[in-house]
Amino acid sequence: MNDIEFSQKVYDIAAGIPEGKVMTYGQVALVLGNRGWARRVGRAMFYAPSDIPCHRVINSKGEMAPEYAFGGKDIQRGMLESEGVVFKPNGCVNLKKSVL
Predict the structure, then answer these.
(1) What is the pTM of this model?
(2) Cα 20 to chain center, whole Å?
(3) Thinking of the domain 3-98, which architecture would CATH place it in?
(4) Helical (H) or strand (E) element with 11
């Protein structure tokens, strides 16, 4: 699968994540057939069109994206909280309650 096909599949998966839920990069990679593609998923998300809800894809620890994405971690967190995603006191997403 070339990079364009891979990215489109990543975007299709991300677009299907409902409000109030998240998926990890590794989960998206697993749906695509190889959990080891998590970094490749992250790279695709970096270049995603603006209509893809990239803020719903997070790392396996439940942490927000690096500062260069979404204008900062607080913005991503605000987007997720406004959709009903549950956070733990340490600032990470509560994966048990919010993973799709």
Answers:
(1) 0.93
(2) 12
(3) Orthogonal Bundle (1.10)
(4) helix 3-15
